[in-house]
Amino acid sequence: MKKHCHKCNVEVDIHHNTCPLCGAYLESVEKLTDEEEYKQIDYSYPKLNNDVVMKMLLQKITILITIISILACAMINYLSNINSELTWVWHVIVGWIIFWVTIGRTLFFHLEFKKQIVWDSIFASLLAFYIQFSILGRFQLLAEENWALVWATPSFLLGAMGGLAIHAIIRYKEWARFALPMTAVNIISIVPLITYYILYKEVHFMTFIAAGVGIFTLISMMIVGRKKYFTEYMKKFHM
Amino acid sequence: MRKKKIKDELLKLGGDQIREEWFKLDNAAKIYPSTNNTRWNAVYRVCAVMKDKVDRYALQKAIDVVIHRYPSLNVTLRKGVFWYYLQGVDLTTEVAQEQFYPCQKFDIKSNKPLFRVLYSQNRIIVEFSHCLTDGFGSVNFLNTLVLKYLNIIGEEIGLDNVLHYNDSPIEEEVEDSYMRYYDASGTRQIKKESKAYHLPGTSELNGVLNIIHGEVSTDDIKVLAKSKGVTINQYVIGMITYICYLEKQKDQPNKRKKPIKVQFSINLRGFMPSQTLRNFSGATNVQLEETSSNMTFDEVLQAIKVESEKVLTRENMQQFINSNCSIEKNYMMKIVPLFLKNLGMKMAYYSVGESLFTFAVTNIGTVNPPEKFKEHVERYEFVLGSQKYNRNAVTIGSYNGKTVFTFSRRSKSSSFERTFFTFLSNQGVSVVISSNKGGNNEKTLS
């Protein structure tokens, strides 16, 4: 049984109240018995759920708030400063960057945990350097002042390696997927050691531990993983 | 019992069972993940409308078996340094009830399969990312799924015209046929196309896709096409072009300068034999040569007939393959890191992708499943998901003497579809309309 739209001169599926083409109300047909209703093929679509659209709207609103707050703070900072310079607004910008790199990215962009942990460790290290610079106000530092390089960065990298290792052990069936982020963190872990050596011509034990753990993990993966480890690289680097 | 439960939980916690198998993306699929953004990726739907309500549990049992027959579909998308690739996995595909608009984007970073199985009242629905397969592969998958589903609910079905779920997959089914037919020394398409006219309209919110199905008798369409001396494809492209032409005449004069071009998808298996279940389709643009500002339908139809006969040749298809594969084979292209490729492909897609055509038409053709399907399957529906920049598309599929036109659009107005179906009904063709708008169950977003 079908309804008819006189405006469009087409038959319309019985489950529609209005014509999908012109929007005109359709004459109702006689109510079907339960048996007829069951036999009737149901072409209608289910109720709509607007969660996805709401999430997109939320994302847009958050982006808008970010931009407006930065612009407003920049303007207040500029107008309220006697020398017409931007001073404290940089902290607002850094605050928003922290939000987007951590909470915002998890909420809106579904970054995988293994990638999130790599980026978070790198970002946390950069943040440590930013705070260090904000406190001391200069780049040229003595070895004992440079806590971001000596303590913070190696700690974050060790944390990342530990986090990835634990995650790889838990999800042991797909451990090979952790090969690339693990290798990336392992290689990055050598950077503080080299940087410290170039700057101060000596080796700090904390940077040495981070680099050592990184190299050890890298070699262990190659030996233990063997074919799987290298196949993973073949896939990742296929041309 | 408890020990087994703990063991199962530990196994589950251990992650997805990764298969050794992995696949490079085929030539056509390479563009899709790169052009993907937070709101869009290329998704389409194949659907069998059953005569009875769908049994969710039988469908779940069916998919659990059928997925092993299609190793190139049981994959997740992974990012490499130079290209994306498909990693074979043994994931369980959960059958879900349809809840939202058709063809929602896949979260390609989520390591979940790039297809989903849904059901709703009488519909068995499978939605695919275009990274995996094209219309041919997806219809084969759907038919195998329906076959197993019917077997589970106790129906005996013949094995003609269907890939059986107990058969082993053959190597050719997972090959990249573009590379097989690529001729490095052959000629390539070098013509530079101009941008096409785009239909005006107000866009819906992201994620909203309006669907209108129009069911007509295949014989009626055949008679109409025959009376004008054209094929069904030419007749449909002619109608679409004519309506675009009418819309264009109503538009502002400065927007009328660009030509109308209808993009028509082509199953390359019709030109070059292949059994691949991955992508092996192409597309060509059929342009209307506007001779005057008041062309009649017959004039448009004849112009389209001439133009389509000119472009739909084996030589053109070979050139199409050569051009696309030569880009992939280019050494410079190979060594560029993926994030730069993604940027380049995004820009290329915007400038020479969808901007080159006005309307997309895909004809899946006639679906010929086993004869016994006719007792259980009422019709097939094919839905092309929203495109990134163009707002409208139509997909056509025939089965058991019925042809279903499915218009999918991101724009609010249904005036194009109204003109199309009214035009058909005025030619004496009986049209039955159904839609995801205006139904009893509908809850609009506004």
Short description:
Chain A has 239 residues and is mainly α. Helices cover 66% and strands 3% of the residues of chain A.
Give a structural overview.
The complex is a heterodimer of chains A (239) and B (446). Chain A has 239 residues and is mainly alpha-helical. Chain A contains 9 helices and 2 strands. Chain A has a two-stranded antiparallel ribbon with strand order 1-2. The model of chain A has no long low-confidence stretch (mean pLDDT 84). Chain B is an alpha+beta fold. Chain B has 2 domains: 18-157, 2-Layer Sandwich (Chloramphenicol Acetyltransferase); 210-374 and 382-435, Chloramphenicol Acetyltransferase. Chain B has 12 helices and 15 strands. Chain B is globular. The model of chain B is unreliable at 442-446 (pLDDT under 50). Chains A and B meet through strand 2, helix 2 and helix 9 of A and strand 1, strand 8, helix 12 and strand 15 of B.
Which key terms come to mind for this protein?
heterodimer; A: 239 residues; mainly alpha; two-stranded antiparallel sheet; 9 helices; B: 446 residues; alpha+beta; Chloramphenicol Acetyltransferase; 2 domains; five-stranded mixed beta sheet; disordered C terminus
**Net shape of chain B:** globular
Helix content class of chain B: 25-40%
**What's the end-to-end separation of chain A, in Å?**
57 Å
The CATH topology label of the largest domain in chain B is Chloramphenicol Acetyltransferase
Name of the CATH class of the largest domain in chain B:
Alpha Beta
**Order of the strands making up the biggest sheet of chain B:** 10-9-11-13-14-8-15
What is the number of helices of chain A? Answer: 9
Count the E strands of chain B. 15
Q: What is the number of domains of chain B?
A: 2
Principal-axes geometry of chain A comes out as: flat
Largest sheet composition of chain B = 7 strands, mixed
Label the structural class of chain A: mainly alpha
The ordered H/E elements of chain A are EEHHHHHHHHH
Q: What helical percentage do the residues of chain A reach?
A: 55-70%
Low-confidence stretches of chain A: none
